[in-house]
Write a structure and sequence with these properties.
It contains 16 helices and twelve strands. It is α+β, with helices and mostly antiparallel strands. The protein is elongated.
């Protein structure tokens, strides 16, 4: 039943893009969407909140889930655009504008508001007006502050046969606005020019990136290549050095063990061999640990699946809302993994309250996510932003989670309970815990977290800049193949660093590696947040309380996802590594 619900959604997202054909003279609908400050990508308002020729009754277009999630609120306009028919100056509306509405327009222009339309699913963007400022050179020449509102729009539409290829708009005929002044008659006009082109309709996607957003994102290929090579060298060095050390350790320990008749190690020895009776002692709060690992596994599959589909062009990434819809649906499907991995690991650790573990797993991410969304959505509601989700969308998301995600979590948990493989620890665990000696400063938890987090963060620092420019800037990201490679390299680095730090910890006779394996590499999220602070204050031009709340709240949530994902990779790498070295250690 659940698959019957989800499969049609994926067919829509992954199907080839279709293009509408028009006959000459057929009306082409222009949809108005939203307005907002250019420097605040997530502060958007409905187009008709400004006095810009709203119809007597606004009719909205039905939108997909992803379009609503990204703040689109498409509404029909009364532009009369006919396919292939040029039109001169046409009056859109003529109206009186009261002083409070004039002040609203002035505020929008001072905040550098832009508008967004859609024509045949192609975005059209432009500025509402212009702000001219000149500083006075002396007391006789005062400061000049002019606010100009554009009242004419010219649409230039390129077409090939019966298909629209691209569309651009230019604004002109500005008039000056003054505070607390009424405009008796404000006339908005538009004109349309059709230009035939030889570009094929399949190239439409390349034409969607209007130069309204400057292409300042330059791909520094040398930096990408250098970071990739350094990561590969790091993984290689760690593997070679660690294997040589382990080989010597195993040879030494096994040789010493051959001279002992009682089948135990000499108490005068030191190192990881001495804690073989404690290294597989299950940790405290194992219920929470298993839940973290289960949800982390889910996000590994979710991130890998999204980047893979984007890299191989399985859906139109740049179609508004496609990424949001795919993320929601893929998250619901991968809930099966979180339930299976969490309960399976919990049963292996001799846990008995698997239902409690399943409930905790379902709340490990959804709880903080709901809290973050509640805070951000409350601010958007207060500011009447289009980023505030309608009640119907909230109900749809709730339906997807409670009737698709939760059942899959329970099904995965049930499957993990009944089919969980044995833990298969290569060493027996004694009832009495071994005393942990005082450790060196470089083996402390804080130092290892700093090292593990910094190295993992360094492997993605170049790509992280491009991702931030795309999510919080005005750029379009195209290097999904490189991003896929960086994602797998990040997983490899996280596993390698986690294993290395775990080896040093065990060598200091500290067997409490379970939580440390998660925290050491999961600390990457801390460094991501530090970079986010640097980006907000040094690289971006974002401003205002609304944008700041959304930026920092969701950035904290993303850092938490980094912690879960990379901590899970490190955990499984350490678990398999520790099983391997003790399995190759001769003992009774």
């Amino acid at each position: 039943m659940m698959l019957r619900i989800l499969i049609p959604f994926f067919i829509v997202q992954c199907s080839a893009e279709t293009f509408k054909s028009y006959n000459k003279g057929e009306k082409v609908e222009l949809l108005v969407n939203k307005v907002g400050p250019y420097n605040n990508p997530d502060e958007t308002y409905h187009y008709y909140t400004l006095p810009l020729c709203p119809p007597q009754q606004v009719h909205h277009k039905k939108m997909a889930l992803g379009e609503v999630l990204q703040g689109d609120r498409l509404a029909y306009s009364h532009y009369n655009i006919q396919f292939g028919v040029n039109s001169g100056d046409t009056v859109l509306c003529s109206r009186q504008v009261l002083p409070d509405k004039v002040n609203q327009l002035i505020h929008a222009i001072e905040e550098d508001y832009y508008f967004e339309y859609f024509l045949d699913d192609l975005p059209i963007r432009g500025f509402l007006g212009e702000l001219h400022e000149e500083l006075g050179v002396d007391l006789l020449n005062a400061h000049k502050h002019e606010i100009l509102l554009n009242t004419h729009q010219k649409f230039i539409i390129n077409y090939n046969k019966n298909n629209i290829i691209s569309v651009h708009v230019s604004s002109s005929n500005p008039i000056q606005l003054h505070h607390d002044t009424q405009i008796d008659q404000l006339v908005f006009k538009y004109s349309v020019e059709w230009i035939e082109t030889s570009r094929s309709v399949e190239d439409r996607r390349k034409q969607q990136n209007h130069p309204f957003f400057p292409k300042s994102l330059e791909v520094h290929w040398l930096s990408v290549i250098n970071s990739t090579v350094l990561v590969l060298l790091l993984i290689g060095f760690v593997f070679v050095i660690l294997m040589r050390i382990l080989k010597n350790d195993l040879a030494k320990y096994n040789q010493e063990q051959g001279h002992l008749e009682d089948g135990d190690f000499d108490d005068s020895d030191v190192g990881w061999k001495m804690i073989h009776t404690d290294v597989f002692r299950f940790p405290f709060a194992k219920n929470l640990l298993c839940s973290f690992v289960g949800v982390g596994t889910q996000f590994i599959a979710l991130a890998g699946g999204l980047i893979f589909m984007a890299a191989f062009d399985m859906f139109n990434v740049h179609k508004h809302g496609a990424m949001y819809t795919s993320t929601v649906l893929l998250y619901a499907i991968t809930c099966f993994l979180s339930g299976y991995v969490s309960v399976s690991l919990y049963i292996q650790m001799n846990g008995s309250r698997w239902v409690h573990n399943l409930l905790l797993t379902s709340l490990v991410f959804s709880g903080p996510m709901f809290l973050a969304w509640s805070v951000v959505n409350s601010f958007h509601w207060y500011y009447s932003s289009t980023q505030a989700l309608p009640f119907s969308t909230v109900l749809l998301l709730g339906f997807i989670y409670f009737f698709i995600g939760m059942p899959l979590t329970v099904f995965g948990g049930s499957f993990g309970k009944n089919w969980a493989p044995p833990f298969d620890a290569p060493c027996r665990t004694k009832n009495i815990k071994r005393e942990i000696p005082e450790t060196n400063w470089y083996n402390t938890a804080l130092f290892q977290m700093l090292i593990g987090g910094f190295i993992s963060f360094s492997s993605i620092s170049v790509q992280l800049h491009y991702v931030f420019e795309t999510v919080w800037g005005r750029e379009q990201y195209f290097l999904y193949g490189i991003l896929l490679l960086s994602f797998f390299l990040l997983l490899l680095v996280s596993g390698a660093i986690g294993v290395t730090l775990a080896y040093f910890q065990l060598s200091s006779e500290d067997y409490r590696w379970w939580w440390r394996s998660v925290n050491n590499v999961g600390a990457t999220g801390i460094f991501v947040f530090v970079y986010a602070l640097y980006y907000y204050y040094s690289k971006s031009s974002m401003f205002g309380l609304l944008q700041a709340v959304q930026y920092f709240t969701y950035t904290l949530l993303v850092c938490y996802i980094f912690f879960l994902t990379l901590g899970t990779v490190s955990f499984f790498a350490c678990l398999n590594f520790i099983k391997y070295i003790y399995r190759n250690l001769k003992m009774d």
